[in-house]
Write a structure and sequence with these properties.
This protein is mostly helical. It has one helix and no strands.
Length: about 90
């Protein structure tokens, strides 16, 4: 009889420990899911920022080219105007 009682008590303790560990595991699982979700959001934001950076980089290249072209045209105009008007 005593052995049955001890077995029942031991089984109860095991069940409580399993339940406690299960709750802890569930909690950790939820935390991991939240971190993974946050990581996915950050990854998507990073992709958007990368695309925006590439677009801005291309715009800068186009603007630099336009500035170079305008500078060259301005220099050519000055050179032509300098040849037209005789120096005193």
């Amino acid at each position: 009889m005593q052995a049955q009682t001890e077995t029942a008590e031991a089984n109860e303790k095991v069940a409580k420990v399993k339940k406690k560990k299960s709750k802890k595991l569930d909690s950790l699982t939820e935390q991991v899911k939240a971190v993974l979700q946050q990581n996915n959001v950050l990854f998507q934001q990073n992709n958007v920022l990368f695309q925006q950076n590439e677009e801005l980089r291309m715009k800068v290249i186009v603007m630099e080219s336009a500035v170079d072209q305008l500078t060259q045209e301005g220099n050519e105009r000055k050179e032509r105007e300098g040849r037209r008007s005789p120096s005193p």
